[in-house]
Design brief:
Helices cover about 80% and strands about 0% of the residues. The chain has about 160 residues and is an all-alpha fold. The termini are far apart. The chain binds hydroxy diiron-OXO moiety.
Length: about 160
C-alpha cells in the first residue's frame, strides 16, 4: 500500500504528465498549420510519449492498491510567435516537471518507500533526456536565428530525428 501522501503526489504527477501531453499536442497543431511539418511530427510523437508517462503512473497506482484518477485539465495555450517560443516553453515546462519528480523522490526517501523510489528512477532519467534535448534544440535555433532556409532544414531534420527515435 502507498501512504496517503505518496498517493497524492503520484496522482498530482498523473495530472502533470496528462497536461504535458495536451500542451505538446497544442504545440503540434500550431506547428502543423504554421509551416513546420517536421516539428509538428516531433511534437505529436512527444505528446504520445507524455501520455505513456501518465499511463505508466496510473498502472503503478492501480497495482499498489489505489485507483488512478483521470484528471480534469485546462485548455493549453495554442498560439506561439515561433519555434523558439515553443521550445523555450518546453524547456521551462520540463524543468518544472523535473522539480516535481525530485519532490516525489524526496518524499519516498523520507517515508522509506524504496519501491516507489525505484519506480520513479525511470522518470529521473527520462527528465534528464528531455531537458537535454530541449536545450540542444534551443541552441540550434539560436544559431539559425532568422535564416529561413536553415530553419526549413532544421524543421525537416527534426521530423527525421523523430522518425529515427
Ligand atoms: Fe513526462 O516527461 Fe515531459 O513532461
Amino acid at each position: 500500500m502507498l501512504s496517503k501522501n505518496i498517493e497524492k503526489l503520484l496522482q498530482d504527477q498523473v495530472k502533470k504528465e496528462a497536461s504535458s501531453s495536451q500542451v505538446y499536442l497544442a504545440m503540434a497543431n500550431w506547428a502543423d498549420v504554421n509551416g513546420y511539418p517536421g516539428s509538428a511530427q516531433f511534437l505529436y510523437t512527444h505528446s504520445d510519449e507524455e501520455r505513456m508517462h501518465m499511463l505508466k503512473l496510473m498502472k503503478f497506482l492501480n497495482e499498489r492498491g489505489c485507483q488512478a484518477e483521470v484528471p480534469a485539465l485546462n485548455a493549453p495555450k495554442k498560439e506561439y510567435s515561433g519555434l523558439m517560443e515553443v521550445f523555450k516553453a518546453i524547456m521551462d515546462h520540463e524543468i518544472t516537471v523535473t522539480a516535481s519528480i525530485n519532490n516525489i523522490i524526496t518524499a519516498c526517501l523520507k517515508e522509506n518507500d524504496h519501491l516507489t523510489n525505484n519506480f520513479m528512477q525511470w522518470y529521473v532519467s527520462e527528465q534528464m533526456e528531455e531537458e537535454n534535448l530541449a536545450r540542444s534544440i534551443i541552441d540550434k535555433l539560436e544559431m539559425i536565428g532568422a535564416d529561413k532556409s536553415s530553419l526549413y532544414l532544421f524543421d525537416r531534420e527534426l521530423g527525421e530525428f523523430q522518425a529515427e527515435h
